[in-house]
Design brief:
VWA3A protein, four-stranded mixed β-sheet, alpha/beta, 2 domains, Rossmann fold, 4 helices, 154 residues, 4 strands
């Protein structure tokens, strides 16, 4: 519920926000088994992806921290003062950048918009498990039929 009271503000300076989170807000990180950071974003960071990925890999390796990203794609707009963002990328480029950053942070990536879910690591894992279960049940069914046929012949 507290999220509903938040107001959007700030910048896309991802490096600054991440440094604050890991260097100031996680002072007691050694006392916790694992921790996760969730980035809720609508656009690409101002910094280069390879620089961010290297920093994320470094800070996440030091302790059990995962960086998860929830990318919400909205229609591209110019702000109320008719300014374009400092760094532009189309939605696919933005998703690709965040997937790389998330991989460096051992996290999960979720991409959704007004039309629904475009991509989600959690859903991909669930679909994979469902497919494995279906494959296993097919094998069991075939094995069961073979066993019935074999027992009927005896």
């Amino acid at each position: 519920r507290w999220v509903l009271n938040l107001q959007c503000k700030g910048s896309r300076n991802f490096m600054s926000a991440l440094r604050r989170a890991v260097e100031i807000d996680f002072k007691d990180r050694d006392k916790h088994k694992s921790q996760g950071l969730y980035l809720l974003t609508t656009g690409i960071p101002d910094q280069e992806t390879h620089t961010l990925s290297a920093y994320v890999a470094e800070v996440c390796t030091g302790f059990d921290l995962q960086l998860h990203v929830c990318l919400f794609s909205v229609m591209e707009e110019i702000d109320s003062k008719r300014r374009m963002p400092a760094r532009c990328a189309n939605p696919t480029e933005t998703a690709t950048a965040f997937k790389e950053i998330v991989q460096a942070g051992n996290g999960r990536f979720h991409w959704f918009g007004e039309a629904g879910i475009f991509e989600s690591d959690d859903i991909t894992v669930l679909v994979s498990e469902i497919e494995k279960a279906n494959s296993y049940s097919q094998k069991v069914r075939v094995s069961f039929k073979v066993n019935i046929l074999y027992s009927e012949r005896k």
